[in-house]
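pinging the channel bc i need a second pair of eyes. not urgent but kinda urgent?? the chain im working w is below, pasted from the shared doc
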Amino acid sequence: MPGLNIDLQFDGPQHSRLLKRILAHHKASRQRMSARRKKWDEADDLYQAYVPESDADAKRRTRLEQLGEQSYKTISIPYSYATLLTAHTYWASVFLGRTPI
């Protein structure tokens, strides 16, 4: 394509102009996205698979470390996370289950 060959030299006038525009776009993007950051963090908290250790599990872990006494472990999966994974499995089977995709 004609016009796509640009001789861009470091610290040249075109380089400085391009760098200023890129940095201005980056700053504008960061400002706009910072307004959404709180919502994204809330969504991450909702769908995380991590559940804090309960007191009973902490006691079991201590017994295992000190005495070597094996006990059962409580496994908790948040309902919202399980629902999301179930939906993902369904979508993947429907949309990716054909040949060709």
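so The helical segments are 13-34, 37-46, 55-67, 79-96. and Residues 59 and 65 are 10 Å apart (CA to CA). — does that match what u expected or am i reading it wrong
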